[in-house]
Amino acid sequence: MLIYGSEIHSRLLLGTAQYPSPAILSEAIRASGCEIITVSLRRETADGSGAGFWELLRDTGTRILPNTAGCHSVQEAVTTAQMAREVFGTNWIKLEVIGHSDTLQPNVFGLVEAARILCADGFQVFPYTTDDLVVGEKLIEAGCDLLMPWGAPIGSGQGLRNPDALRAMRAHFPDVPLIVDAGIGRPSDAAQAMELGMDAVLLNTAIAQAGDPIGMARAMALAIQAGQAGFVADPMERRDMAVPSTPILGLAELA
Amino acid sequence: MNLIVNAQPREVSSATLALALPELGFTSPAVATALNGTFVPRDARDVTHLKDGDRLEVLAPMQGG
Q1: A226 touching B, CB under 8 A?
Q2: Vertex A138: Cα angle to A110 and A65 (nearest 5)
Q3: pLDDT confidence of A45, banded at 50, 70, 90?
């Protein structure tokens, strides 16, 4: 998978929030096999805790994808992206412009505007968006090389609310990397996303809040591999009626 | 002068942002700064003069999804 010119082998991108401990976070990153992790910027505390976290991240050897989580305006998101570029030393930014506090639904109007500003400023933008095709086109026009449609609201674990829309996105953007971001709850959700032809899955809460985050990291990685292999292997068409798999020819007359 | 630093009222004597950060206890190199909502790059902190009532944000790496 080519992400802004970088060859990425793991199709799981992992968030770093809400783990029971830093040690479990490190182990979960390793167990997931992910190469890209998301992080945020928050107010520095008096004890300088940010530096310790940053060291832990660097020890994992993964690539850092900073986010603009919590930003509700274009100005906030752009300023946060600029600050993240300096701290993390990367042009990558997971762009979130939130439109609604309850659903954390992207404000797609602000998202497109912020994407245009950031792409023009040399950022490589990973836009957290809806499954709307027109918005996707506007983001690509703004300079985004990939799209990150939501599966369901952030942290809800509902799985894919609208698989048909994701299938339509795949058909509409055959050459654009599509990463389902948010809403995954179980390994079967992640497998389903990959079977629909998504290029990757970004998740956080489903692993961090599992009873055994390290075990779930492993399970998600396997599900994503299985779903992707299934998509490549071209699944059979659904049928409305049964078709016997055992040959009729040669069936004995025993009645 | 009085500043609002990460939403808390603080008093500093330093004239520039570069000098105010250590005075305020921010010694980690892994921080980014914004003054009154505008990003101030690291190499501009020396020439960024503070004034009474300025709103300073000092951000650091944290967990995120």
Answers
A1: no
A2: 65
A3: confident
